[in-house]
Specification:
eleven-stranded mixed β-sheet, 12 helices
Amino acid sequence: MPEAAITIRFATNRDRDPGSTGFAKDSAPDLPGQRRLVLGSVSVKRVGGADATETPRQLRGPPAITGLDNFADPKKGDCAKLLDAWLAEAAANGGIALLFVHGFMNSFNDSMGRAAQIQEFYEEAGQNLVPLAFSWPSDGTFFLPEFRGFLTESAKAQYRLDQRDAMAAGPALARLFEALLAAKRRAKTKAPRMALLTHSMGNLVLQKAMAALGQGVMTATMKDLFDEALLVAADVSSSAAKPGQPLLAVAEIARRVSVLTCFDPVLDSASRSANGDERLGHDGPPSLDGLPANLRVIDVYSGMMSLPEQDALKAKGGTEYDLLGHQYYRNDTRVRAAIAALLQGAEPAALAMLPAEQQRDRWRTRHAELTP
């Protein structure tokens, strides 16, 4: 019988909250120390149902902040020990060590609950995930209160604040990659399978992390750090996936990269309004030409749950309609099954590679399609 709680390990560049034992909702990314990392763990209540996609996962207490040395001792310090324990647990249980980077509008507590959701949901798909959540300093709110009565402008202003913090968090994530590589190399037993999952604005953090590493020297030393990288519903410009752009350097540190796209008119419209550009998670790359050989674009839209299946899930407390275009990696059972296969290094049974003449339509660009 599963434990009543899930333990989630975390790394964060958030500021400590002097008034509590946790973290502030925001940090000051323009100040020195943005590469600073604090590590620890939290206990999150287990809900006990993969259908309960809208049920919050509550923290059972304040975070245990055990990694405070900021990798001053890169081999035996308290931060290094936490990474060693994370990999050892995944290896002992035959699991996958998953580094998860959340998106827009996630407080620290939100991001820990989301990581627990992912672990719980993928258990149903037969996948044992051992998450480490990187929590960058999103404010965890949708509106700025000073814009009373102007909801659209308020949401745009808050969105841009989170964008600022996401971009500033890139160097901290890059530093975590370096620490993960060191931990993988010193693993006493064979290191477990390792995966990276970045969702929504978390892909902007990843983009800036790859830029901070620089293409070539640093990324070459990190070759095959991850067995699988999943860029899900990426809230970055489609142009970020042009050859030569920093984001594509993720293909140098992962054996296989899957960019998952989906028809998402609600958030795509909001993103275009704020950014004035096509969105990678909706439209896909501008072109499939020149992409790394180990990277492919997968459109999940056609293979998602049918409307009757969505209605049945809603009746059980499941997802609302527009989240399926953005939160499908956790809310859609068909997509979850496909991602579980990808995480294991397998091919989803419902994945079809498309002929070249069918790899473009008016909404998106893709190599492959998840079929019904």
